């Protein structure tokens, strides 16, 4: 898939209005518009986001034109954000998103993180964020965005008498490379960092933390996960998810969830990830401790299924052995008594001398 198409998909996944070259509203009812001012070192012909080839050690301005569409004064916050992978397999750009230690550099580290723009009624301002490109350059791609949000809340829909407030936001994507096609020289890779019990989407389950440690991104991945009882072919949980995308140098929790409470025990995760850019397969043993299951289930108001501890089975086994022994003793006692009764009857019926 071409880089341009991938980035457009990633930006659309944010669920926010992406700023266009021609002024457009950030979202229905928004009071401002945003237009990127494309510089000469734009790598491609696209005009809706920054796709730049930058020089090591250089200063790179990112400029947007912000217009107040109302007569009232407005305060607009502009933040420099980095890309990250969301739990739903889409790329996110909201400020203060999760970071990954594999990143050599992040976009929000290269310039001023945020600033507030004050706009008078119907005023347009050009606002710039200056990036300082590392002197030694960087490998692959740095992906992020300029996240613009109206500081004023507006009334939204209400539910059960509660009035919700909205803040409209716009994203202008930013992709940096030090040479044309630099991203294509980075081989995609995935790692399974950890597996354990947790909560996702208000449901209990198994969370597999998957990392992309490389400065590149790609999509169209299929995740197939099965959770087995340890040393068994019994599948207790499973999930299949398609069209997942991963942001550069990021990680996320792939959740295999259920509606019932977690059961303590020993398990094995089998996770397969396939796509046009590679294939990754892991089998990982893990355990859900009783304390973990009880804590998670209690938080979600679910019952913890009863699991017999090992010593419970030992006691049951001893009880069965004792019961069998008692029954055998009773049988022997009855047999002896019957034989005694038979012997007494024979003696009683024998002729007297």
Low-confidence stretches: 1-28
Total DSSP helices: 3
Question: Which structural class do you get from the secondary structure elements?
Answer: alpha+beta
| Overall pLDDT confidence | 86
Q: Distance N terminus to C terminus?
A: 116 Å
Question: What assembly state would you assign to the polypeptide chains in this entry?
Answer: single chain
Order of helices and strands: HEEEEEEEEEEEEEEEEEEEEHH
Structural Rg? 33 Å
List how many beta strands DSSP finds.
Answer: 20
Task: Summarize the entry for a quick read.
The protein has 353 residues and is of the alpha+beta class. It has 3 helices and 20 strands.
Overview of the molecule:
- The chain has three helices and 20 strands.
- It has 353 residues and is an alpha+beta fold.
- Strands 1, 3, 5, 8, 10 and 13 form a six-stranded mixed sheet that branches. It has a four-stranded antiparallel sheet with strand order 17-16-19-20. Strands 2-4-9 form a three-stranded antiparallel sheet, with no helix packed on it.
- 32% of the residues are buried.
- The N terminus is likely disordered.
Topology summary:
Elements: H1 3-12, E1 17-18, E2 32-37, E3 50-53, E4 59-68, E5 74-82, E6 84-85, E7 91-92, E8 114-119, E9 124-132, E10 142-150, E11 154-159, E12 162-166, E13 169-177, E14 191-200, E15 203-212, E16 218-229, E17 235-246, E18 250-257, E19 265-275, E20 278-288, H2 290-299, H3 310-349
Parallel strand pairs: 1-13, 3-13
Antiparallel strand pairs: 2-4, 4-9, 5-8, 5-10, 6-7, 10-13, 11-12, 14-15, 15-18, 16-17, 16-19, 19-20
Question: Top keywords for this entry?
Answer:
six-stranded mixed sheet, disordered N terminus, alpha+beta, 353 residues, elongated, single chain
């Amino acid at each position: 898939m071409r880089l341009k198409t991938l980035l457009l998909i990633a930006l659309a996944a944010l669920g926010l209005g992406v700023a266009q070259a021609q002024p457009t509203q950030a979202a229905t009812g928004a009071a401002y518009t945003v237009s990127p001012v494309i510089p000469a070192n734009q790598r491609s012909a696209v005009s809706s986001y920054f796709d730049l080839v930058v020089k090591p050690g250089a200063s790179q301005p990112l400029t947007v034109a912000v217009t107040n569409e109302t007569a009232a004064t407005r305060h607009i916050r502009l933040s420099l954000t980095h890309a990250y992978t969301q739990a739903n397999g889409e790329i996110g750009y909201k400020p203060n998103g999760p970071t990954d230690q594999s990143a050599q550099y992040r976009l929000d580290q290269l310039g001023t993180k945020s600033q507030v723009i004050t706009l008078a009624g119907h005023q347009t301002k050009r606002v710039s964020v200056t990036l300082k490109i590392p002197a030694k350059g960087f490998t692959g791609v740095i992906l992020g965005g300029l996240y613009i949000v109206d500081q004023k809340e507006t009334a939204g829909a209400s539910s059960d008498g509660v009035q919700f407030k909205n803040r409209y936001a716009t994203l202008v994507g930013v992709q940096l490379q030090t040479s044309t096609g630099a991203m294509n020289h980075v081989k995609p890779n995935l790692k399974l960092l950890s597996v354990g019990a947790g909560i996702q989407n208000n449901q209990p389950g198994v969370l597999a933390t998957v990392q992309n440690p490389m400065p590149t991104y790609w999509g169209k991945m299929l995740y197939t996960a099965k959770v087995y009882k340890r040393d068994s072919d019994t599948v207790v949980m499973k999930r299949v998810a398609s069209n997942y995308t991963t942001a550069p140098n990021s990680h996320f929790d792939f959740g295999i969830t259920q509606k019932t409470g977690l059961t303590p025990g020993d398990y094995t995760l089998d996770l397969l990830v396939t796509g046009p850019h590679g294939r990754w397969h892991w089998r990982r043993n893990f355990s859900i401790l009783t304390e973990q299951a009880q804590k998670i289930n209690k938080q979600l108001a679910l019952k913890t299924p009863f699991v017999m501890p090992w010593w419970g089975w030992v006691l049951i086994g001893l009880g069965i052995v004792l019961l069998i022994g008692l029954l055998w003793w009773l049988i022997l006692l009855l047999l002896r008594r019957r034989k005694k009764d038979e012997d007494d009857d024979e003696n009683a019926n024998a002729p007297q001398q």
